Amino acid sequence: MTRIAYTKPSITEHEVAYATDAARNGWGVKCYDYINRFEAAFAAHLGVPHAIATSSCTGAMHMGLAALGIGVGDEVILADTNWIATVSPIVHLGATPVFVDIDPATWCISPDAAAAAITPRTKAIIATHIYGNLCDMTALLALGDAHGLAIVEDAAEAIGSVCKGRPAGGMGRFGTFSFHGTKTITTGEGGMFVTSDAALFEQVLTLSNHGRARGQTKQFWPDMVGYKYKMSNVQAAIGLGQIERIAELSARKREILAAYRRHLAPFQGLSLNPEPEDGVNGAWMPTLVFDAALGITREACLAAFGAADIDARVFFHPLSSLDFFTPQPANRRAWDIPTRAINLPSYHDMTDADIARVCDVVAGLVRGGA
Ligand SMILES: *Cc1c(COP(=O)(O)O)cnc(C)c1O
Predict the structure, then answer these.
(1) Ligand 1 atom with least separation from CA of 129
(2) Is 70 exceeded by the pLDDT of residue 108?
(3) CATH number for region 13-99+107-243
């Protein structure tokens, strides 16, 4: 039996043809062609007017928060359950991250917890759509309106997720996406900044190119100190090929989650990523949470999956449990759920037999207890 990877990209001749063309011809006057096409195709897919390709989602978030003027003395609220990439830009800008608990149904930021954490210093709330699950954007956007705060979306894991007809990443002041090799669409490393706010778009565009505004006619003339978070044309060529296949890539992600749901339906006490009432879960990462009563731990899962040669990953550790932050175990759900949860493999080309093999391990855990 071969090892089952937890993710790997689906790269076809389509992406290879674009990348080859970019490598051969995409220089000189053509050096931005694929970048422009990828940005336009991504914006069109999402239905937002502005998109800027970046070297990472982290960079996109860094520039977006900087463009909002967030800095020393400001607070930014985010879920304790998050990847480090969501918080590091806050720290780099000298602002203070405020970690709050998650909603037990969505594993995303709890709007009530966010509301309770607002102070006069709060500048923004980051809504991370974890594992493709949607934050309660209706509640968060209302909170933003009521308090004059920016609601920002980390949609790195949520391409394909839709809330009441609106795409994840397209609802807040800005949204960010990741094209890291593990994500639903990939450019190896890469990201995207999207917004409907024309002024914010111009600011981030300038920031992304070392502070050089696009209308600036003087050569080598930055108007401010910016960042260098641009994507290369060759990466964008792969990205264009991927976004042109988004319907197929997204559908397969959802199919895999549905297959897990079907296989695991007979067992009591298991929760997989929720399907929103009024939307779609893009199903980036099927994640299984065991009811506490089952007594099945993360460690037992890792051992069982390891023995079956299946690459399963742990649910994100609460950020406040990392050594350089102050522990906040009062964020009970963010601290509890990861101790009895596991990410399941989900890559485009995995077979039904692979899915069955993963589910057999889960069945063994449930039958055998911890
Ligand atoms: C992957 C990921 C990121 C970071 O993406 P990079 O492109 O690696 O910077 C940020 N936030 C979340 C929630 C992610 O899953």
Answers:
(1) 13
(2) yes
(3) 3.40.640.10
